[in-house]
Amino acid sequence: MAEPRVDATASRLEQRLAPLQRLPPALRWPLVTWMVGRTVSFVGTGGVCVQALGREGVSLTLPLRRRVANHLGSAHAAALALLAETAGGLAFAMHLPAPRKPVVKRMEINYHRIAKGQLSAAARVPQDALARLQADASGEVVVPVDLRDETGGDLVDCHLVYAWFTRDAAPGR
Q1: What's this model's pTM, rounded to 2 decimal places?
Q2: Are 92 and 6 in contact (CB under 8 A)?
Q3: Which residue, among 107, 99, 101, 105, has the nearest Cα to 123 in the 3D structure?
Q4: From start to end of 55-155, where are the E strands?
Q5: pLDDT of the chain along its 173 residues, tens only?
Q6: How many helices and strands in the chain, by DSSP H and E?
Q7: Taking every pair of C-alpha atoms in the chain, what is the biggest distance, in angstroms?
């Protein structure tokens, strides 16, 4: 069976996910979760699960387990930050052409209340930034992340600033 064709402007992440596109969702998303967890081990350790991942956006969940809980029995603030950074980073990575390198520059989270149960995160790169990601050798973009708990309530105001560069334009070179 032939491998799915990947556009020349595809991101490194899209290239890695292309062979999985022919799998049914019940197999694809656990495999994508495993791949992401192997690539970024802290994401795997935290237990982040990929529900959807594409150019349209990213959807993740984080079940409330002992390893991500705080002294109050709810999700630890660092677990919310992990989920937010993972969602924003994956959304960003889906649009970043293969030769470019991503890096987080800044993360801003304003916590509103204690989380209840399973967490979910959704992120997508703003439409006005997409052309710059393709055309510019380096730059930065703000990616907002929507973080909710099982009650559906808003937990935080959150956005991350991601930068990118090519190997030749790497800082300190």
Answers
A1: 0.85
A2: no
A3: 107
A4: 57-62, 100-111, 119-123, 139-148
A5: 344 445 656 788 888 888 888 889 888 888 888 988 888 888 888 899 999 999 999 999 999 988 888 898 888 999 999 999 999 999 999 999 888 888 999 999 999 999 989 999 999 999 999 989 888 989 999 999 999 999 988 889 999 999 999 876 455 54
A6: 5, 6
A7: 52
CATH number for the region 12-169 comes to 3.10.129.10
Structure tokens at 100: 């470019």
Contact 157, 113 (CB under 8 A): no
Domain regions of the chain by residue span: 12-169
Reduced to 3 states (helix: H, G, I; strand: E, B; else coil), residue 28 is helix
Contact by Cβ (8 Å): 126, 118? no
> What is the spatial distance between Cα 167 and Cα 61, in angstroms, rounded to a whole number?
33
